[in-house]
C-alpha cells in the first residue's frame, strides 16, 4: 500500500473544513459594498504638435548654447599670432586696397619731428615750387 492511501485510511478524506451556507453567492455583494465608489477615468489630454516637440527643441537649443559658449572660451584663450606669413584678413584687404581707408590721415598725437614735417609739406602748394627749391641739391 502507498503512503497516501495509508493516510487516507487512517484519517479519512474529510479535513473538517466547511464553507458556510450561502458564502459564495453573497461574496460578490459583500466585496462590492466594501469598495469605494467608482470614479470615471479622465479622458487623456491631447497635446499639440508644439507641446510634443518643445522638449526636444529646448534640448537642442541648450546643446547649441553650450557649443557656442565653448567656442567663445576656446577662441578667447588662444594666443593671437600676427605675422607676415599669416596676416589678419583686414590687413590683407587694406594692403590690397579693398577697403576704403584714408591712408593720408594726420595722427592725433604728433611729436616735434612730425610737426616739422607737417609745416614742410603744407608750405608747398604744388610740385613746381618743391622742385625749384630742391633742384640745386
Q: State the distance separating the first and last CA atoms.
A: 150 Å
Q: Mean pLDDT, nearest integer?
A: 77
Shape category? rod-shaped
* Oligomer kind: single chain
Question: What report would you give on this structure?
Answer:
It is a single chain. It contains 6 helices and no strands. It has 137 residues and is mainly α. The radius of gyration is 51 Å and the shape is rod-shaped. The termini are far apart. The model has no long low-confidence stretch (mean pLDDT 77).
Mind sketching the topology for me?
Elements: H1 3-11, H2 23-34, H3 49-77, H4 89-96, H5 112-122, H6 127-134
Overview features:
single chain; 137 residues; mainly alpha; 6 helices; 56% helix; 0% strand
Describe the structure in brief.
The protein has six helices and no strands. With about 140 residues, it is mainly α. The protein is rod-shaped.
